[in-house]
Recover the amino acids of this structure.
């Protein structure tokens, strides 16, 4: 079965997301608020551009905290947009009232990850699916019943009579997810935002639900936004894929192109990390270290650089990276930990992001010695290439790093990539923020 | 069913197995009758070997893991024989079992945060664990041991005095593994240790588990629903369906030429990067209060024969090594005449669909 857009007539834009940002204010404790202390902002979605064409499946792929779910929710107006626009049929979802949003949700519907949480345990299947019709003003109970029966048949829950009176607890995981799908399609929407629709299900059931979603798309002419952390299902299911990291799209393009030649190191890492049921494949060794960082204070420069296996000098090295490096050094040579810790003193102040880092408590020469030892342990460590100078300061040293703005999405081959390794090819469409980049 | 298991010499070692389970059964009492969650399971685990236990939810894999540890809820009963270094751990009294757990038998759970005390520093967690089992250790020795394990798990010594909430999800799972391994148990059960984690972090933890045998010489029973993780981190695999291990053997062997149709279909329905079409197993796993007669997989099996619906399959040597329970593999002489006729399957209604 073809999921490719050319199977459908035309490729008109149905949803157009422009420079969309969704920020959440961290409110802190009562005391902090009383003294007006700023506790920060989480940029869950940060200046994202995305165009949905009629009849295609767009995948939003990334780890938790990448902003993929928030972006998906913003498409239904479930989270308020801080900046930018989401255009659907010449209307902007980003600045609609609740009443208008309710109308929009006839057109854009959502499928949630956990069918157990998405269904009200005290509602029968008929009530759950029919509720969507009732909310949207279908008064006649017979009409509602008719609609529910049709939707249940479409999702393969037949004989329908057997399911109408069942409660979620009587259903298996796959059946529940079918009910959730039925509720999503009962209003005849055009766009379905599916947030990890199969990740809670068993392997043998996943394929069934994905197949059902493909059938529904074919029969009802749906357009999908498929949100997932799993590149394997995305590869099979999507026409285009946007890889997200810490609120931004770092690579976007046609599925074949992304898989044939992944460009962004994050995309490559995600691909390498998929556990394949192939006994010849061994555990990948050059995985990114660490985890997705704190979104309230993202890394300077490229957000992925602290974990990136391909990082270079101008990725935006900073004080926190130095701390990580020191701690890694101590993990290697743990014999010297106690002495060196005395020499370097407290590292907590390095947590404030800065392109210069002052460390040391035991005198400049001794601290320089420690740094030199770290350097010689791992000469390929790209952080050192990003150090512009090291000068004596008090009882330690100050390390200055090369400042670097976050890379913008730039054209590379058939895709757009936000990485300093892919400088502008020139003359092509630039999306995202246009930061002028010095050639590396 | 006969249970004389003479498993092939496993891995590099034909040594005495660390764990030798024979005909293990676990059942839960309910108002509808007993749920036979684990129903006659046998396997061996050699020193330093990793066995992947894979199957769908409800197949009994977690119950088996907890049953081995003696961590079953009230109302559950277990039966059979599990020899740990020659000693039957199912017949120990509660005090002896308590002594053995932690020191000799380790467990790694799925949700790390629910297993760490939010009011205790990491250092206190280690102190408590070690002091409980090795009271004679000095504080310096204790700290040295803990830091060494943390180092192997990739946690810097600077974090030793932090609280659990100061760690990320992956770090917490590393802490759990470190706590389970600091006493150097000979046998560890890891129950879906990566399911709650992100893809990249999952790969990091799989790497750590993969290095366990080298760093700790521990035998690992890795319970997972992800056949990919089994392929990457395990020496042998046991495929579980409806309370029974239907096929076991070396991972490369079983994955390359699965003998049981369930193993084959499970592998086929897994969506991987090489997937070009969607495959799935029709139907749903059976109700374990009243499982189907004969082979439990026969109502869903594309290759079912007449004999499969009436006679329990025999546990036999798997071609290429290992064990398998399927009439397709044999033994020929126990199949009644005409038993190899393709079974007329009942039309599956969606009612039975998962």
């Amino acid at each position: 079965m073809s999921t490719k857009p050319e199977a459908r007539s035309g490729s008109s834009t149905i949803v157009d997301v422009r420079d969309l940002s969704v920020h959440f204010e961290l409110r802190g404790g009562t005391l902090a608020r009383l003294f007006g202390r700023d506790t920060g902002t989480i940029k869950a979605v940060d200046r994202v551009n995305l165009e949905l064409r009629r009849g295609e499946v767009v995948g939003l792929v990334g780890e938790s905290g990448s902003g993929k779910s928030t972006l998906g929710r913003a498409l239904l107006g479930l989270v308020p947009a801080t900046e930018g626009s989401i255009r659907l049929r010449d209307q902007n979802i980003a600045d609609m009232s609740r009443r208008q949003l309710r109308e929009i949700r006839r057109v854009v519907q959502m499928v949630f990850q956990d069918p157990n949480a998405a269904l009200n345990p005290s509602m029968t299947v008929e009530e759950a699916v029919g509720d969507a019709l009732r909310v949207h003003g279908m008064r006649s109970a017979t009409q509602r019943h008719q609609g529910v029966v049709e939707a249940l048949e479409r999702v393969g829950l037949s004989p329908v009579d057997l399911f109408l009176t069942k409660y979620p607890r009587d259903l298996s995981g796959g059946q529940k997810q079918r009910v959730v799908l039925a509720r999503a399609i009962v209003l005849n929407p055009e766009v379905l935002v599916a947030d990890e629709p199969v990740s809670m299900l068993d392997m043998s059931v996943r394929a069934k639900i994905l197949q059902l979603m493909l059938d529904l798309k074919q029969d009802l002419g749906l357009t999908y936004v498929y949100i997932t952390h799993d590149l394997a299902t995305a590869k099979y299911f999507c026409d285009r894929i946007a890889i997200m990291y810490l609120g931004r799209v770092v690579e976007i393009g046609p599925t074949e192109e992304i898989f044939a030649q992944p460009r962004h190191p994050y995309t490559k890492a995600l691909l390498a990390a998929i556990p394949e049921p192939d006994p010849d494949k061994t555990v990948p060794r050059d995985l990114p270290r660490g985890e997705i960082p704190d979104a309230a204070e993202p890394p300077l420069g490229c957000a992925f650089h602290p974990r990136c296996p391909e990082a270079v000098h101008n990725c935006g090295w900073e004080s926190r990276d130095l701390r990580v490096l020191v701690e890694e050094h101590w993990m290697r040579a743990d014999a010297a930990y106690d002495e060196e810790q005395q020499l370097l003193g407290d590292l907590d102040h390095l947590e404030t992001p800065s392109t210069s880092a002052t460390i040391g408590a035991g005198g400049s020469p001794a601290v320089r010695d420690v740094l030199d030892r770290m350097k010689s342990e791992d000469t390929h460590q790209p952080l050192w290439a990003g150090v512009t100078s090291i000068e004596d300061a008090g009882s330690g040293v100050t390390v200055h790093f090369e400042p670097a703005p976050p890379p913008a999405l730039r054209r590379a081959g058939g895709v757009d990539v936000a990485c300093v390794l892919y400088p502008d090819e020139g003359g092509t469409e630039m999306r995202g923020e246009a930061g002028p980049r010095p050639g590396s | 069913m006969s249970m004389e298991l003479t498993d092939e010499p496993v891995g590099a070692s034909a040594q005495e197995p660390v764990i030798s389970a024979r005909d293990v059964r676990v059942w839960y009492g309910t108002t509808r009758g007993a749920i036979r969650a684990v129903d006659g399971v046998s396997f061996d685990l050699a020193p330093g070997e990793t066995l992947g236990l894979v199957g769908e939810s409800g197949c009994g894999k977690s119950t088996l893991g907890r049953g081995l540890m003696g961590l079953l809820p009230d109302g559950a009963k277990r039966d059979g024989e599990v020899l740990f270094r020659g000693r039957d751990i199912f017949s120990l009294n509660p005090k002896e079992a308590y002594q053995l757990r932690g020191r000799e038998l380790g467990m790694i759970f799925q949700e790390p945060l629910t297993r760490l005390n939010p009011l205790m520093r990491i250092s206190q967690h280690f102190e408590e664990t070690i002091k409980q089992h090795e009271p004679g250790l000095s504080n310096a020795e204790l700290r040295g041991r803990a830091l060494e394990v943390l180092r192997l798990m990739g946690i810097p010594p600077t974090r030793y005095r932090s609280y659990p909430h100061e760690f990320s999800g992956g770090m917490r799972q590393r802490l759990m593994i470190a706590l389970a391994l600091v006493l150097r148990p000979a046998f560890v059960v890891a129950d879906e240790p990566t399911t709650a984690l992100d893809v990249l972090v999952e790969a990091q933890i799989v790497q750590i588990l993969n290095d366990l045998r080298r760093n700790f010489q521990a035998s690992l029973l890795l319970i997972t629903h992800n056949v990919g993780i089994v392929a990457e981190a395990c020496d042998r695999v046991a495929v579980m369906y409806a309370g029974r291990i239907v096929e076991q053997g070396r991972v490369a062997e079983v994955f390359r030429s699965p003998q049981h149709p369930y193993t084959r279909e499970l592998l086929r329905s897994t969506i991987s990067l090489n997937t070009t079409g969607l495959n799935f197993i029709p139907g749903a796993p059976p109700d374990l209060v009243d499982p189907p007669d004969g082979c439990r997989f026969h109502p869903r099996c594309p290759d079912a024969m007449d004999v499969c619906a009436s006679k329990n399959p025999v546990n036999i040597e798997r071609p290429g090594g290992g064990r398998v329970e399927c009439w397709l593999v044999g033994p020929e002489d126990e199949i009644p005449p005409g038993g190899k006729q393709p079974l007329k399957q009942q039309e599956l209604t969606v009612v039975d669909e998962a």
Summary: Confidence is low (pLDDT under 50) at residues 1-13 of chain B. The longest strand of chain B covers residues 33-45.
